[in-house]
Structure formats: structure tokens, C-alpha cells
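> example.struct
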């Protein structure tokens, strides 16, 4: 029996959806360069291809790791972080935020289940702040584009921001703030949403055919996802290095002091770049004169304010909590940039 409840997309809608794909820019950009500026076609394509091929080992490791975590059901282990005393929950949530094997969209039902079971807002905020900043694939991609010192520093910032945000929310809650943090449709202990504590990880997943199918599905989907976005990122980086004067970048976000770091944070926040596109672009910006501290501020602010990350928070909590999330993310981006600049 045919389901007529959902409208069938028109050919024009399907074509528009295909044009909106990152592959459109990835393919069209070199073609436009070949037509408009043929002298730089080889330089752009060689730069993008060499950078992409250099990242392939990191992509392979990242997709294998994330597929294993998903097939094993590692979400159940992450959920265990939200048990016990509130301070312990904040620490564990910040630590597990960088290890969670799900994207920002998958965080929504996970957090909805936690909030429905009455989990305090503070550890949830710690997880929300740390989760979009780092995960296994992001760590690999950041290391490939910007080096391991920067990738490790970003991981440290992710955990630190989660801890600072979690304990800040705990302190504000103790003063009477955020008395009713949830939106109307998510009431504590109402039983809505999945229970994230259900299930137990099976690390030797290959003994179960169903989990083996999950592994193959996740491996394919994540490989295609990373290849799609990284191909776009390296094409954009090649265009950036080729056509944007280094002097312009150096004037905006170069030099010493806190001003370039603040500018980078405020530029990065509305940029809405996901954590796979940002590192290659930052590599190009740093080659043009961007400082290390400004790069860290840009990537932290951009990850916190990415559309999927903000949607996860906006869909579950009220405007006051959402504003606290954005404020903590922006403040953490600036502070992390200043500290990294001092160290470097």
C-alpha cells in the first residue's frame, strides 16, 4: 500500500538538493579556475590532491574506530558518566564528551533521555560544550592538518571548557538560575525519549551478525561523510592559499595581543564550519599569517556554534540556557586562544 502522507519531491527539488551538496563546490571550483585562471589550475588541484592524500591514513583510522564504537554500543558506557554525585558527573561528562561516538544530531535523543530521567543540567552542559569540539575523527583530522601539538591542545581545551562550563552552571543553579531549564515538551522524569542507560557494550561485536551489519554501515557512511567534507575543505584551502593575499590575513588576525584572538572568535562563531572543514582552512590561514592563539579561538568558537551543535541545545532547553551555552563557548574560545598564544 502506497504511503501518500509524505509529498513526493519534484524533479526541481531533487535537483536543488543535489546542487546543495558539498560535492558541487568541490567539483565546480577547479572547473571555474580552469576557465577563468588556467595558469593556476595545476597549482590548485595539486595542492588539494596532495593534502587530501596525506590525510587518507587518518581518515581510515578514524572511520574504523568510530564504526567499532558504534557497533559495540559504546553509548551505554558514555551514559554511565551521568551517574553518581553531580561533581563527579561533570568531570566524567567533560572527559567522555570528547570520546562520544555520535555526531551532534545523535546527541539530541541521548541528552533528551538523560534530561527526562532527571539528570542535572550542569553535567549535561559539560558534555554539550566538550562534545562538538573533539571526537576521534576530529582529533585525527586536526592532527593531519595542523599537527599533533595543536590537536592535543584542542582536546585539552575541549575537556577544560566542559569542566569550566559544567561547574559554572552548577554554581549558577545553586543561586537559583535555570530553575526550569527544559522546553515544555521535555519534562523531567516523564519517561519520554530513550533511556540511554539501557544496554551493555559488546566490544567483540563481530560475534553478532546484527552488530557486524552496524559496523559495515557505519564504516561506509562515515567514510563517505569524511571524504565529502575533507575534499571540500582542501579545495577551499587551495583557493585560500592561492588567491587571498597573506598581508590581508596578517592584518586581520595576525600579530600579538588579544585583539586578533577576539576577532577570530567572533569571526569563527558565525562561520558555522564543522570540525572536518575547519582544520584545513585554518592551516591555510596560519600559512598566511594567522597566529596559533587566533586559530584556536576560531576553531573553538566555530565548533560550539556549528548548526548541528546549536540545534542539539536549542531543541531541548529554554533561551536562557541556550544563551549560557553560547556565552560559555565564546568566552572559552577567547581564553583558550590567549593561553595557547602565551604558551606558544
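> example.seq
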Amino acid at each position: 500500500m502506497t504511503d501518500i502522507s509524505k509529498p513526493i519531491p519534484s524533479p526541481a527539488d531533487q535537483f536543488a538538493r543535489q546542487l546543495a551538496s558539498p560535492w558541487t563546490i568541490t567539483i565546480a571550483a577547479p572547473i571555474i579556475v580552469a576557465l577563468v585562471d588556467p595558469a593556476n589550475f595545476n597549482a590548485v588541484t595539486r595542492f588539494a590532491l596532495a593534502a587530501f592524500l596525506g590525510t587518507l591514513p587518518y581518515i581510515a583510522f578514524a572511520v574504523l574506530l568510530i564504526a567499532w564504537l558504534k557497533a559495540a554500543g559504546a553509548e551505554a558506557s558514555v551514559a554511565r558518566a551521568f551517574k553518581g554525585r553531580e561533581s563527579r558527573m561533570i568531570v566524567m561528562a567533560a572527559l567522555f564528551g570528547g570520546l562520544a561516538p555520535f555526531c551532534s544530531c545523535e546527541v539530541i535523543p541521548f541528552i533528551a533521555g538523560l534530561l527526562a530521567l532527571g539528570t542535572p543540567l550542569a553535567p549535561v552542559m559539560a558534555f554539550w560544550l566538550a562534545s562538538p569540539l573533539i571526537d576521534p575523527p576530529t582529533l585525527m583530522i586536526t592532527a593531519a592538518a595542523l599537527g599533533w601539538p595543536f590537536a592535543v591542545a584542542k582536546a585539552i581545551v575541549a575537556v577544560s571548557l566542559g569542566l569550566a562550563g559544567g561547574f559554572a552552571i552548577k554554581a549558577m543553579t545553586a543561586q537559583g538560575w535555570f530553575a526550569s531549564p527544559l522546553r515544555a515538551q521535555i519534562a523531567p522524569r516523564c519517561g519520554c525519549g530513550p533511556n540511554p542507560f539501557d544496554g551493555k557494550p559488546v566490544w567483540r561485536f563481530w560475534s553478532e551478525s546484527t552488530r557486524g551489519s552496524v559496523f559495515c554501515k557505519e564504516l561506509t557512511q562515515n567514510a563517505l561523510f569524511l571524504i565529502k567534507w575533507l575534499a571540500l575543505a582542501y579545495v577551499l584551502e587551495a583557493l585560500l592559499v592561492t588567491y587571498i593575499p597573506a598581508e590581508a590575513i596578517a592584518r586581520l588576525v595576525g600579530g600579538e595581543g588579544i585583539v586578533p584572538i577576539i576577532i577570530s572568535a567572533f569571526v569563527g562563531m558565525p562561520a558555522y564550519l564543522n570540525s572536518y572543514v575547519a582544520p584545513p582552512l585554518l592551516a591555510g590561514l596560519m600559512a598566511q599569517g594567522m597566529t596559533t592563539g587566533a586559530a584556536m579561538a576560531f576553531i573553538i568558537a566555530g565548533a560550539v556554534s556549528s548548526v548541528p551543535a546549536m540545534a542539539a541545545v536549542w531543541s531541548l532547553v529554554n533561551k536562557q540556557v541556550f544563551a549560557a551555552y553560547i556565552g560559555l563557548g565564546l568566552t572559552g574560545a577567547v581564553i583558550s586562544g590567549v593561553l595557547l598564544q602565551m604558551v606558544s
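> remarks
Residues 39-176+183-343 form one domain.
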